[in-house]
Design goal:
7-stranded mixed beta sheet; Rossmann fold; 11 helices; alpha/beta; binds S-adenosylmethionine; globular
């Protein structure tokens, strides 16, 4: 086991999480948001689509439904388990040129001009250098190509408070992702890195959890791993308890635990085709 795998498994154990849980909990939420992203990207029959950070492949499958057998979808993810899962789901559809590869989302290795659309569903803010990634995606696009990505516009207040509670045990966490913090910031960032015709829309997505454990499994599986990784092992039980207090406070009188997240969907085209 590598040091990072060891760290991950000790965090998983401390939080009572499992690899199986990691795979189980993402589905509905990403399917819903991925379907909206596919719709906002204006995908058309016959188009060739790349999704970076494709996870289990829910968005890829939604894209495949639209582009059909004359088009294709290609996914990349840096987690072998995700690549295996998403790859099996995509290959089961038997559409030529459609597959999933293990690769880095910030510089996926494809020929210039390979795709009509590059999608990134709730992951672009996880990249170390999103500006470099955007410039690279422009080279992968064909004429009239576009990128489409979703980001969190406003988390549910209970969700945000619970993450802040964990963050108190995780020093040096930057809660807000600079270039994606607002619509104006996204527009400025895209203009600065060679994109135009920017269209931004918002939707509120509800996520229903059985209990705080279920919520934590979801956090673990989706982006929150970065936050949990920063909590020192000895503080994990306290961090968990503090977060659960915040999440419990969000229960409705009926006992439901529903978090509403405002999600922002951005579509843009490279200013000048960056093909070779
Ligand atoms: C929040 S999930 C997104 C799920 C997926 N986009 C969907 O719509 O179903 C983020 C995914 O991005 C992947 N990821 C994060 N950083 C990455 C990187 N630098 N390179 C490749 N994949 C990455 C994670 O492994 C995870 O599967």
């Amino acid at each position: 086991m590598s040091p990072s795998e060891e760290l991950e498994s000790s965090i998983a154990a401390a939080f009572d999480l499992s690899a199986r849980g990691h795979d189980r909990f993402a589905v509905d939420r990403f399917l819903a948001m991925g379907s909206v992203l596919v719709q906002r990207a204006g995908l058309r029959e016959g188009e060739h689509v790349l999704e970076v950070g494709c996870g289990r492949g829910s968005t890829l499958l939604a894209a495949l439904d639209v582009v059909g057998e004359n088009g294709s979808v290609m996914g990349v993810d840096d987690r072998p388990g995700m690549v295996q899962l998403a790859g099996a789901r995509v290959r089961a559809r038997h559409v030529n040129g459609s597959d999933v590869r293990l690769d880095e989302a910030d510089k996926p290795n494809f020929q210039p001009g390979s795709f009509d659309v590059v999608l990134a569903n709730l992951m672009i803010f996880q990249l170390a250098d999103p500006a470099a990634a955007l410039r690279h995606y422009a080279t992968l696009l064909r004429p009239a190509g576009r990128i489409a990505f979703s980001t969190v516009a406003a988390p549910d207040p209970a969700f945000a408070s619970a993450l802040v509670a964990i963050g108190r045990f995780a020093p040096k966490l930057s809660a807000q992702r600079g270039p994606f913090r607002s619509e104006a910031a996204i527009r400025e960032f895209l203009a600065e890195h060679g994109y135009e015709r920017v269209a931004i829309t918002e939707d509120v997505q509800e996520t229903r959890f059985r209990d705080p454990e279920h919520w934590l499994e979801w956090v673990w599986a989706n982006g929150g791993r970065e936050l949990l990784d920063r909590v020192p092992a000895k503080s994990l039980p306290l961090a968990r308890a503090a977060a659960f207090d915040e999440i419990e406070a969000a229960r409705t009188p009926d006992g439901d635990l529903v978090l509403s997240t405002a999600v922002r969907f951005t579509v843009a085209a490279p200013k000048t085709p960056a093909r070779v």
